[in-house]
């Protein structure tokens, strides 16, 4: 991490941006000679080499190391892994039986809360976002991420014991980063991907699970992909081919359930039973 500095004016337009649902700008993507600059306004710039293997953080004045680290782990690392050819998605994953299941959704759909619910009940989590999937001889497997889960205050209060470890607070969000431990168990080894659940918006009055076709799964995976350069055609073609191979596995489902903390144990048990009863078809 470099010394703090004011963010210099950008003299060109970003080739891509991320914004919050309310329209607030979150991230600007710029091309540099030999790489990229990812700007989080008033927080930090991250300069990334063309191959994604070198990252320099340039925090704005007054921004803590904890904030810079939080940005790196949750925003930058998934993007640079995608640049290196990895499949990385907006998804959480937990261990069930001899494999793992993934919950895929945009921010706010409850994937971290669902993963935390499993983790505090003894099913180890692999990641709460930035899901890395690799292909192998027998299918696909999930790689573990950093051992922490980010939760809003209501989810933390409902699920996490007071003694659980917590990372230092950061300036740009009220989400807490809860650290793995005896109360929030973490899986530090790859696990075979057994099921994928794309989360609905919570409008269902009861748990609803519906199988998805390969074409539907492909659309969902592409929509939830991390990609550093959305205009890099060779990387996009490779990414699409990889995702198509994943989507062809008959393990994909749409999942919706009422977002009530009191219902989580029952929802969790129903999901486990679904995993155990629905064998993957060849």
Entry keywords:
6 helices; 2 domains; 27% helix; 282 residues; globular; Rossmann fold; alpha+beta; 16 strands
Secondary-structure blueprint:
Layout: E1 16-19, E2 25-32, E3 35-40, E4 44-49, E5 55-59, H1 65-83, E6 87-89, E7 91-96, E8 99-104, H2 111-120, E9 125-127, E10 131-136, E11 139-143, E12 148-151, H3 153-159, E13 176-179, E14 191-199, E15 208-211, H4 214-223, H5 233-247, E16 252-256, H6 264-277
Parallel strand pairs: 8-14, 14-16
Antiparallel strand pairs: 1-2, 2-3, 3-4, 4-5, 6-10, 7-8, 7-9, 10-11, 11-14, 12-13, 15-16
Question: What do these coordinates show?
Answer:
The protein is of the alpha+beta class. It folds into two domains: 16-63, no CATH class; 88-277, 3-Layer(aba) Sandwich (Rossmann fold), CATH 3.40.50. It contains six helices and 16 strands. The strands form three sheets. Strands 6, 7, 8, 9, 10, 11, 14, 15 and 16 form a nine-stranded mixed beta sheet that branches. The protein has a five-stranded antiparallel beta sheet with strand order 1-2-3-4-5, with helices on one face. A two-stranded antiparallel sheet has the order 12-13. Strand 10 and strand 11 form a beta hairpin. Helix 4 packs across helix 5. The model has no long low-confidence stretch (mean pLDDT 93).
């Amino acid at each position: 991490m470099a010394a703090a500095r004011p963010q210099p004016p950008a003299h060109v337009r970003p080739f891509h941006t991320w914004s919050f649902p309310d329209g607030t700008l979150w991230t600007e993507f710029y091309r540099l000679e030999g790489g990229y600059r990812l700007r989080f306004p008033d927080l930090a710039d991250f300069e990334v080499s063309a191959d994604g293997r070198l990252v320099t953080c340039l925090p704005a004045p007054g921004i803590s190391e904890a904030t810079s680290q939080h940005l790196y782990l949750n925003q930058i690392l998934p993007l640079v892994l995608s640049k290196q050819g990895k499949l990385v998605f907006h998804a959480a994953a937990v261990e069930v039986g001899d494999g793992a299941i993934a919950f895929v959704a945009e921010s706010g759909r409850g994937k971290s809360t669902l993963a935390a619910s499993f983790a505090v009940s003894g099913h180890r989590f692999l990641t709460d976002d930035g899901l890395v999937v690799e292909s192998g001889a027998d299918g696909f497997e999930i790689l573990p991420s950093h051992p922490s889960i980010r939760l809003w205050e209501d989810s933390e209060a409902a699920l996490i014991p007071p003694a659980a470890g917590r990372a230092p607070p950061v300036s740009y969000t009220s989400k807490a980063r809860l650290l793995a431990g005896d109360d929030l168990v973490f899986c530090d080894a790859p696990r075979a991907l057994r099921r994928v659940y794309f989360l609905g918006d919570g409008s269902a009055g009861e748990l609803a699970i519906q199988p998805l076709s390969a074409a539907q799964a492909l659309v969902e995976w592409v929509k939830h992909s991390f990609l550093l350069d959305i205009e890099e055609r060779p990387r996009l073609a490779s990414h699409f081919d990889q995702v198509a191979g994943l989507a062809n596995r008959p393990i994909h489902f749409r999942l919706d359930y009422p977002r009530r903390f009191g219902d989580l144990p029952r929802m969790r048990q129903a999901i486990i039973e679904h995993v155990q009863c629905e064998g993957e078809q060849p």
